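Q: Sequence in, structure out?
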Amino acid sequence: MNWKRPLAITLAAASFGTALAACSAPAASTPEASATPTVEAQNLSNQSVKAPKYVFLFIGDGMSYPQIQSTADYLGALNDADYWQAEPSLDDNGGAVLDGPSYLNFMNFEAAGSAVTYDSNSFCPDSASTATSISTGHKTYSGTINMDETGTTPYETIAEKVHDQLGMSVGVISSVNLNHATPAAFYAHQASRNDYYEIGLELVDSGFEYFAGGGLLKPTGADEDQEDLYALAEQAGYNVVKTQAEAEQVTEGPVIIVDEHLADGDAMAYELDRTDDMWSLADHVSKGIEVLEQDEDGFFMMCEGGKIDWACHANDAASSIHDTKALADAVQVAIDFASEHPEETLILVTGDHETGGLTIGFAGTDYDTYLNLLESQKISFAKYDSDYVAAYKENKTSFEDVLADIETLFGLKTQGEEGDKLVLTPYELSQIKTAYEKSINETATGMDEQQEYVMYGTYEPLTVTITHILNNKSGVSFTSYSHTGLPVAVLAHGVNAEQFNGYYDNTEIFNKLAGMLNVQ
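A: Exactly. Output:
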């Protein structure tokens, strides 16, 4: 079982067959109504909506329309022999016609909505508050998980409700840490998302049947003086699995599977860095189905593609694209399952917020894009930092040797044939030289603090400069190292999919699920 395979990009409609019956889509709620929802006030009629037995909720952290579309456009560019010839800047395209994007499987879902993402103190919200809105139907402050703005009143999550009231099994999967904000929003209640140990205790106490993905942060507490969370989980009856070989043998829960090949931040590796012998996000979903489908009462599974967000924070477009593809591969597992249970399954794909202000287009490329240049990047920013930049610093590696690595790993070069878009301009080369001196030799850049932040954020100057240049040569760019206020897509297929059409607040995702599942 390994999902390092070509992305399934147009299989959704064929896999599902005909659309499944559901009542008509409700009118969008006003922000005021959705900010303090009650189940009784939902706009769904419990008597007219069929309850799905199997619910998949996929959340691309930091994934909005730009992340989805850039991935589809990138794949389209790779598959289009006319892509480079069909440019708007050419007077004669020689009959070349752009084929367009290669649609991701969930882009073909039968229902498409948009969710507004603001929270109680920002139009550019964080993952804790937005995941709280999706999970509980309540707004709260950035940094808060399933608690009100005072940090004193907890909110019950949709996962807790279906687990306790309906007897459904629950799975929580993430490519980042299992006690990170988004997965935590389905089982924890903390005024601060940074209380990782306390969140981990709630994970252990949740009783959910399946956890899988990244490792737990601060497993022995902030001061490393608490009882180990993994030991507590075993005492509570969990099978804690930390090797891939053991994970292959798992057949039942409750289980916590920690990916064997943890990378930066004790999270799963970026898809760009993953090798064929390493489990993917799709593999963890497949194993989750195997564990959870034994429950006759059905299951609820939340799967987060968390490293989309991390890549976009670092302005690494290539890594963002590959992890968005990895999420689509995970969705394909659910699509395949739903094809066998077409009248019982609902699949939702959404994001919690957008990260990075990613856009398709850059001032330096005008109306053109050269998206397939991103294929030149062979390594994520994080792996380049850990495997290369750290050694450069230790060995004081020469600029010439660093440039040789940059050409091998990112395709950027100092010379090449005429028309080679990967050849660095004098301006770009000077940017890399300045960043190299800053990163390796701690040489002052001559910029003021504000200008340095715009150039590098909090990231390694050399690395982020390389990705910025490759992004821009490809015709994509970022506006931020943080989150933005863009709405996110809500794409649905299966039982009651029509309920998710429209433009609404993100709290309505909870309301619609709670209504159709008839939980209080």
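The chain is about 35% helix and 15% strand.
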